[in-house]
Amino acid sequence: MALDITVDVTAATPPYEQIRSQVAGYVHAGLLRPGDRLPTMRALAADLGVAVGTVGRAYAELEAAGLVASRRRTGTVVTSRSPAPAPVEEELRRAATDLAAQARAAGVDAETVLAIVRAALRQPAG
Fold this sequence. Notes:
Layout: H1 15-28, H2 41-48, H3 52-64, E1 68-71, E2 75-78, H4 87-106, H5 110-122
Antiparallel strand pairs: 1-2
Helix pairs in contact: 1-3, 2-3
C-alpha cells in the first residue's frame, strides 16, 4: 500500500510529529497491518522534502510506542495494531465515512475532499 503522507512545514506541529501521527493513524485504522513494511527513511524523506533525520525521529517514536520495529534486512515493519481507538476517534471515523459517501454521491474527487479537510484542520478552533 502506498502511504498518503503529507507534511506542512508551515504548521505549528513539527514535521516528525505529522509523519508519526499519520502512520499511527494508518495502523489504528487497520490500513497498515502487522508485517507491512514502511518506506525506507531515505525514500520517505525524499518524497516529503524533509531530512532523513526527521523521518528517523518519527520512526523512532513509532517504535517506542510499539507500533513498528526496525529490522536490519527487512527495514521498518508494523509489529502490532494499536489498542482500540477512543470513542471520539470512532465518531470521527463514522463522520469521515459519511463525508466520503456524500462526496461520491456529489461526484467530488478524493483530492478535492482531502484538500477541503486539510483546510478545515488548519483553521483555528472556535
